[in-house]
Design a protein that fits this description.
It is a single chain. The protein is mainly β. It has three domains: about 170 residues, no CATH class; about 110 residues, no CATH class; about 210 residues, no CATH class. The chain has six helices and 37 strands. β22 and β23 form a beta hairpin. The longest helix is centred in the N-terminal third of the chain and has 9 residues.
Length: about 500
């Protein structure tokens, strides 16, 4: 067993010996040695689930000479007092217990009950209800600065010429906020007990009565800034209530306005009402209120829900480049399969641009990569927007890629209405791997690559294609053919043909 003994002399203190022990019992010879030197006052510390500096194998016992005890002037040294203890004992200063606040040291401890004698847990709630173990109540908190120990002090036990005194650590659960949301139908069905429609979905705690601030809309992203409120993924917070009946809505900062964290320490070394329960209601979808192009640039995602509340220009004149030209804000929608909600509210989004450079990962592209059946896009104008896919390597294999200014592909079941469109699709080299030399692996449309245009209004929409590689010769060398023909059908699809005489005259245009 490793054990250390330190004898220290503090300013104005009696001589004190401290034993810091490992898990096994203190050797009798060590205690006898201290007692023989007059250290006959033994002060021990009951940690009640805590530890010194997180070390479960560490026990601290203080030994004092008895003369000052008999004089009634013995001042005790608090474990880990940095002013009077050396480096070894400083390392024991942090008496800790995970998830709890140390309320102090007390001279008396009893089991906690209500007025009828029913066991209460550490939160003062019935053990039969919570299922938690019984807590304790304490008496006579020890003030290390003011209190003095004497031979006739309460709780001092005398055994021959040895005096024993125990101090008990009192703990309280940290100030806790618990957040509840209403159970989904599936969660309620799987709840065997079915006692409550509410589900605890998150919590946080602190050493002091921390505030919970009502979320506000972020100026940076347009989404809700939740602060320390747990997020319910795929949803947006609607309201917070102080009761399960949704009778008292929290409309200001808690506890600054109206609702206080009522927990706190009591005189008997306990804390009451340390848990504040808040009940939340939510809206389906992660919503953003967009007032600037920068917000949309930063927040756009495949499942997001967007309320556009102003005209947006992705050319940022307020932040020009070195030559004084407006910088263009990023837009990642060109590679996204959008399944969310996009309410334009009659606004116009201008100068949005996507440049796709990696043909190896592209399957569809446009302002949106693809529009899924779940998506909803309404009442918005995309003006002077641009989609580019510039494939400089002929070895890229894109199979079944689709391109259109609005989207590479749009699902028939998608909800799209009141959308207008103008701009350009610019495609570089299209590499065809079809053995027959056809162009079946590409679908290119003015609006949607798959021809599902959902009555989108479009004007001044063009598609430029630099080159099409249609076949390989017998030696495996690439045979290049220039784009020769584009026919716009009623559904806005471009029908591409290649030059049948390209090997004899690569520059000949088709009809």
């Amino acid at each position: 067993m490793n054990k250390k003994t330190k004898v220290i002399l503090g300013l104005g203190f009696a001589l004190c010996a401290t034993l810091a022990l490992g898990a096994c019992a203190m050797a009798d010879t060590t205690q006898d040695d201290l007692l023989s030197k007059g250290y006959n006052v033994i002060v021990s510390y009951e940690l009640n689930g805590g530890t010194f500096s997180g070390n479960e194998n560490l026990t601290v016992v203080h030994y004092y000479p008895g003369k000052e005890l008999e004089a009634g002037t013995l001042r005790l040294v608090e474990p880990g007092d940095k002013e009077f203890l050396d480096d070894y004992l400083v390392n024991t200063s942090g008496v800790v217990r995970g998830g709890y606040i140390h309320l102090g040291w007390y001279t008396g401890m009893e089991s906690r009950t209500d007025a009828s004698g029913n066991p209460l847990d550490e939160n003062g709630e019935l053990c039969d209800v919570t299922g938690k173990t019984q807590g304790h109540v304490f008496s006579d908190r020890w003030d290390f600065a003011e209190d003095r120990l004497s031979a006739d002090s309460p709780y001092v036990q005398k055994d021959g010429n040895v005096y024993r005194f125990t101090l008990y650590a009192a703990w309280a659960p940290k100030y806790t906020f618990e957040f509840y949301r209403q159970k989904t139908a599936e969660e309620a069905a799987n709840d065997a007990a079915g006692e409550s429609p509410w589900l605890l979905y998150g919590s946080f705690n602190s050493d002091t009565p921390a505030e919970v601030k009502i979320p506000s809309w972020s100026e940076e992203t347009g989404g809700l800034d939740y602060g320390n409120i747990p997020v319910y993924e795929g949803h947006t917070l609607d309201k917070i209530y102080a009761d399960a009946n949704l009778g008292t809505q929290c409309t200001e900062t808690i506890p600054s306005k109206g609702i206080l964290h009522t927990g706190g320490e009591t005189d008997n070394g306990t804390a009451e009402q340390m848990i504040v329960r808040l009940y939340t209601t939510w809206t389906d979808g992660e919503w953003f209120h967009i007032k600037t192009a920068s917000q949309l640039s930063k927040s756009f995602g495949e499942n997001g829900c967007y309320e556009i509340e102003a005209d947006l220009d992705f050319l940022d004149a307020a932040n020009p480049d070195e030559e004084g030209n407006p910088t263009r804000l990023d837009w990642n929608g060109g590679g996204v399969r959008f399944s969310g909600i996009f309410h334009g509210n009659g606004h116009t989004i201008s100068n949005l641009e996507t440049v796709q450079t990696d043909a190896s990962v592209l399957v569809s592209g446009g302002v949106f990569g693809a529009i899924t059946a779940e998506a909803e896009i309404t009442d918005v104008t995309f003006r002077d927007v641009r989609y580019e896919a510039l494939f400089v390597s002929y070895n890229h294999r894109v199979g079944t890629a689709s391109y259109g200014l609005f989207a590479g592909e749009t699902d028939e079941e998608a909800t799209v209405s009141g959308v207008k469109l103008s701009g350009k699709v610019v495609l570089g080299t299209l590499t065809n791997m079809d053995e027959d030399g056809g162009l079946d692996c590409f679908a290119i449309g003015l609006v949607s690559g798959n021809g599902v245009n959902k009555e989108i209004g479009y004007e001044n929409v063009s598609v430029e294609i630099a080159e099409v590689i249609v076949d390989y010769d017998d030696d495996g060398l690439e045979v290049r053919g220039w784009f020769v023909k584009a026919v716009v059908g009623e559904n806005g699809i471009l029908t591409i043909t290649h030059n049948e005489n390209q090997q004899e005259d690569p520059n000949q245009q088709g009809n």
